[in-house]
Design brief:
Layout lengths: L1 E2 L10 H6 L12 H11 L5 H15 L1 E2 L12 H7 L1 E2 L1 H14 L4 E9 L7 E11 L3 E5 L11 E3 L2 E3 L10 E7 L4 H9 L3 H5 L7 H9 L1
Parallel strand pairs: 2-3
Antiparallel strand pairs: 1-9, 4-5, 4-9, 5-6, 7-8
């Protein structure tokens, strides 16, 4: 775990960088299809920021958000998201992390807590990414997918995420995690249809998130 923006590329210790480059069960960048897509996106790119933009825009625009397009199945691992071309925000963040890690760019996972209604009676987590860029340090980007009212862009050093926090109780979690939250992975694995998960979106407290971040 690293606080957002606290360390630049040259300040990241090798032991810290390693965890943000690892292939894991869900960020499985060692899968042949993920590696091939990562290599395709890297073609012609000469520096990390341009490559990060190419990967971000590809995931944002080419992987359909499960709810926006009412698509099944529910995907979780990066290779599943790539295979089926669909995923919730969490799953899309797994794929984006995998594509960037496959190209040697440290990438982590971030979360926001968002209200499901204007009254703030129900909340859920929203998943996005942070990438470690030369000069800029940790930079958050949200590949959830644009639509009317949502216009996430890659414009470092300025963040332009999918959602603004406007309802009391909504919050940004500043932790940059090397692996997905357990509650997110469990929700994606437990449900098989987009509407089932939409009715049971994961949520957790800041205390729970901090505990997982330090684990």
């Amino acid at each position: 775990m690293l606080p957002q923006g606290e360390k630049g590329l040259t300040q990241l210790r090798p032991s810290e960088a390693a965890s943000f480059l690892e292939a894991t069960e869900l960020i499985d960048w060692n899968h042949p299809a993920v590696r091939a897509k990562a290599a395709e996106l890297a073609s012609g790119q000469r520096e990390p920021t341009a490559l990060a933009r190419a990967c971000f825009e590809w995931v944002r625009d080419n992987i359909q958000h499960s709810v926006d397009f009412q698509r099944n199945p529910i995907t979780c691992a990066a290779s599943e998201v790539l295979l089926h071309g669909t995923g919730y925000c969490y799953a899309k963040s797994h794929l984006l992390a995998a594509l960037l890690r496959a190209n040697g760019i440290p990438t982590g996972l971030c979360y926001q807590r968002m209200s499901l209604d204007e009254a703030g009676d129900r909340f859920c987590l929203h998943g996005l990414n942070a990438v470690l860029l030369p000069v800029h340090g940790w930079y958050r980007m949200d590949a959830r997918g644009n639509k009317t009212g949502v216009n996430a862009q890659f414009s470092p050093p300025v963040e332009q995420l999918a959602f603004d926090l406007t309802v009391p109780g909504e919050r940004d979690y500043s932790d940059v995690l090397s692996v997905p939250l357990a509650c997110v992975a469990e929700a994606l694995r437990r449900h098989h249809r987009w509407d089932e998960l939409a009715a049971n979106l994961p949520d957790c407290s800041a205390t729970t998130l901090a505990a997982e971040a330090l684990a």
